[in-house]
Amino acid sequence: MMDHCFVQQWINEFSVSSKLPTNVEELERYADQVINNCDLETDIFNALEDPRSHDKLLGSISNILFAYYRCKNEKLKSWSLAFLPSFIGIHLISMTKPLESRKKYCCVETILIGIYNLEVVDEEGQLKKTSFRLPNLTKPSIYHEPPSFSNQNLTLTEKALLRLEFGSTGLNIATSGPYDEYDRIYAGNRMRILSVLLKIYHRHMSDLPKQSYHNFCKMTLNCLYCCMYNGQLDLGLLALEEIHNRAVSSLYPNVLLMSSAMKGAFKLGSAKHRKDSHITANSNISKTATTNASFRTRKLPDDIPIVTKTNDTMPAIEEQINENRANGVKC
Asked: Residues in the chain with pLDDT < 50?
């Protein structure tokens, strides 16, 4: 069993003070010290992955990271989210264990439900409802046709962004939330809570350490594409293959469509050397491509062999039947 000395030292130092610094400058220095400690970060990941250390360390790790998330320092809050996939994985695994063995995992449920409840309400304690626009190829967007934006020489002020986001008619406006608050995780709300937590994780992915991507590929499969383009290509391809095989066996058409597209994209070139690209609405269709319109006028090949009835195999079949009857086998 690993001794996890860095985690032990981190827990001891936090237990001495029992709280975070109240001064803003001191809290900022403390945050930089913790975030830049790569040995501590690696040791926490290893401790969370090691079931033998859960009895001794899991509760303390959960309490400290939740204290980081609740503090007013954005660095500590973001850094604590790096371990969210590990906690989700531990929680899901704990659900497969007997009831008497789940008591030591109550701290994991506490941090998950705590982060969820903090995110679904605003500063005034009201349930949040977020609106956003779904990209549409018929309307300009930062996701396709970027030259149309550069030609207009738009200054991306807050007012201009709001006009682009909600000013045009005919846009697909979607909403997320509001989500109810919960005091515990059970079968009826588990999927909703974990989905919201994964959305929170995805929103902060650009600020998280690379090792969090590594654990995310092993624990969860939601944001898999982003991880494969951020240094976890090998593990991502393994996870992608597992998803594809599961989709084949369970006949999930939407999953098969996406997994097949991703597998085909990575066969064309390595993601490590892939340059940024964008999707354009003006895609060139091959002149020889078969469409609904061209299929009606396309001539089928004349060299398709026509199967005709033949009696060549009848003597062999009759001979086999006669032989079976001679041996006493009923046909």
From this structure: 147-151, 271-287, 295, 313
pLDDT of residue 107: 92
Distance CA 15, CA 48 (A): 19
Q: What SS3 class is residue 309?
A: coil
- How many whole angstroms separate alpha carbon 178 and alpha carbon 172? 19
Q: What is the CA radius of gyration of the chain?
A: 29
Distance of CA 6 to the CA centre of its chain: 29
Whole-number Å distance between alpha carbons of 148 and 13 = 55
For residue 142, the model assigns a pLDDT of 61
* Structural contact between residues 139 and 103, judged by C-beta atoms closer than 8 angstroms: no
Give the separation between CA 67 and CA 114, rounded to whole angstroms.
10
Tokens read off for 218 = 């092993």
Taking alpha carbons only, the member of 252, 228, 230, 248 closest to residue 238 is 228
Tokens of 249: 């066996």
Phi/psi for 100 (5° steps) reads -70, -15
Q: Decide: 228 and 237 in contact? Cβ < 8 Å.
A: yes
Strands annotated E in the chain: 130-134, 172-176
Q: In the prediction, which pLDDT does 272 show?
A: 47
Q: Quote the pLDDT of residue 275.
A: 43
3 state DSSP class of 45: helix
Looking at residue 104, its pLDDT comes to 85
* Omega within 30 of 0 (cis) for the link into 51: no
b/e burial code for range 272-288 (CB count within 10 A of at least 16 → b): eeeeeeeeeeeeeeeee
pLDDT of residue 315: 57
pLDDT at residue 259, rounded to an integer:
79
Tokens of 200: 């929170």
Q: In terms of pTM, does the model score above 0.70?
A: no
